[in-house]
Design goal:
With 125 residues, the protein is mainly α. The chain has a single domain, classed as 23S rRNA-intervening sequence (de novo design (two linked rop proteins), Up-down Bundle). It contains five helices and no strands. The protein is elongated, with a radius of gyration of 15 Å. The two termini are 25 Å apart.
Length: 125
């Protein structure tokens, strides 16, 4: 993955990838059992919305503070992975949905990893 000097391309690429992932996951959550839709489903959606707000903040804040928000995004992705595994282990989602969701999270995770490496190396306080 090539990183340009300003790294704006990667941060901007996160938004449509996140939208695609969130749209898919909202459709998945609508199809899980009703009792869990309002429990784990709400937790999952809240985590996704928090992650999206952190992504939007990335381009709005000082470059030296971005690593903090990148870490927050990474933490939310890890929470979502855990909740996804719980949904899968309880058979609330099938293997196909689980694998596709993990793939989408993986794409976002790779970008976040690249940003973390870039900002960690170039913008130390």
């Amino acid at each position: 993955m090539e990183i340009n000097k300003s790294n704006e391309g990667e941060t901007l690429l996160l938004i449509p990838k996140s939208e695609k992932y969130m749209q898919y996951m909202i459709e998945v959550i609508f199809k899980i059992p009703r009792t869990e839709k309002f429990n784990i489903g709400n937790e999952y959606k809240n985590s996704m919305y928090k992650m999206l707000s952190y992504i939007v903040y990335l381009n709005k804040i000082d470059k030296y503070k971005r690593i903090e928000y990148i870490n927050k995004i990474d933490a939310e992705l890890n929470i979502q992975r855990i909740l996804l595994r719980i949904m899968y282990k309880n058979s609330w989602i099938d293997t196909k949905k689980f694998n596709y969701s993990i793939e989408l999270i993986g794409e976002i995770g790779k970008i976040i990893g690249g940003l973390l490496k870039y900002y960690g190396k170039n913008f130390k306080e």
